[in-house]
Design a protein that fits this description.
It contains eleven helices and 17 strands. It is α/β, with parallel strands linked by helices and about 350 residues long.
Length: about 350
């Protein structure tokens, strides 16, 4: 391996187009190879980015190219088997979210990475927004004090992603694993990834099922999560619900201050000299200080490989998210709270 540059592959070019763009722009990539079984998409993305090395077969790509790293940007059912294949072929892996359909699958992925001695990172990209990085800095500096409550959501009025196969086997779940996973990870990361203790949740298909009676997945899910440190998290995700429109929101409540991430309203709520203060965070500046630029998640992955440091979005964090998702679905099925194991 060239210790300054890496040979990188991307498999799955519908979602993986963004991965390709970031790798093309990176000075850390010596050569990029792409893979998709859809020949038309393979040609379109290859021509768009000027990538010459193209494969329709993942195993063939791994065998012939001897890659340093691979991005897995495929349907959820393929995350586990293809991540393990890539790890066993000697590649570091960046896997799209969710880590897997279930915690059991995620555990096998983490074990495979450990056996192979390779890095496995989960594509929790919302952490890398400059505003989110600034807010994380406030939390880490103790500006919020003790965090005791978080509310995080991604809801859509109508936004079912019908461009891919929406089955339990293919996806592992509906908006909870598609949208909710992003906002849950963001809130968990901001709060230092507290350990979950109890989960009470439910999943519904009240809107989509009216038009599509055979719809297998939920169109909305909600949960309360109690952490071992006493904090509570409120999670909501929907593809179809009677709300005003699409909304992404995360609110963090601490003993000294709070955070609001909600579209164009991004605030640090605190007290200054005994008076309540709402400090606005806007793109390009935080208060009167400029926001530091942040790396893309793909560059952070490459840097962890080149510098041999821990990846910022770890398999353990991905596994924690999967365990929470499993518990929400189990609670929905049984109608009872679920005690987290381990």
């Amino acid at each position: 391996m060239n210790h300054d540059k890496l040979r990188v592959g991307v498999v799955g070019l519908m979602v993986g187009d963004g991965h390709v763009s970031d790798y093309i722009a990176s000075a850390s990539v010596e050569e990029l190879v792409i893979c998709d079984m859809n020949q038309q998409r393979l040609k379109e993305i290859g021509d768009k980015h000027g990538v010459k090395r193209r494969y329709a077969d993942f195993v063939e790509m791994l065998d012939k190219e001897k890659l340093d790293a691979v991005s897995i940007a495929l349907p959820n059912k393929l995350h586990m088997p293809m991540t393990i294949q890539a790890l066993e072929a000697g590649c570091h892996v960046l896997c799209e979210k969710p880590m897997a359909r279930t915690a059991a699958e995620a555990e096998k992925m983490a074990a495979a990475a450990k056996r192979a001695g390779k890095k496995l990172m989960i594509n929790f990209n919302q952490r890398f927004h400059p505003l989110h990085q600034a807010m994380k800095g406030l939390v880490d500096a103790g500006k919020l004090g003790e965090i005791y409550f978080a509310r995080t959501l991604w809801r859509r009025r109508r936004g079912v992603p019908r461009w891919y196969t929406l089955t339990q086997d293919n996806c592992g779940g509906g908006p909870l694993v598609d949208l909710g996973v992003h906002r849950l990870d963001l809130a968990m990361w901001l709060c230092g990834y507290p350990e979950p203790e109890w989960v009470l949740g439910n999943a519904y298909s009240k809107v989509e099922a009216q038009e599509f009676p055979d719809f297998e997945l939920e169109d909305m899910a909600a949960a309360m999560i109690r952490m071992k440190n006493g904090a509570m998290f409120d999670l909501e995700a929907s593809w179809a619900s009677h709300c005003e429109g699409e909304a992404l929101s995360t609110r963090i409540f601490g003993s000294k201050g709070g955070l609001v991430l909600e579209g164009s309203k991004n605030l640090f709520l605190t007290e200054i000299d005994g008076k309540l203060a709402n400090i606005e965070l806007v793109e390009g500046e935080f208060g009167n200080a400029p926001l530091a630029p942040t790396l893309t998640i793909r560059q952070a992955f490459l840097d962890a490989i080149l510098n041999d440091t821990e990846v910022p979005c770890t398999p353990a964090q991905g596994l924690t998210i999967n365990k929470i998702l499993d518990a929400i679905y189990r609670s929905a099925k049984t109608g009872a709270p679920v005690k987290m194991e381990g």
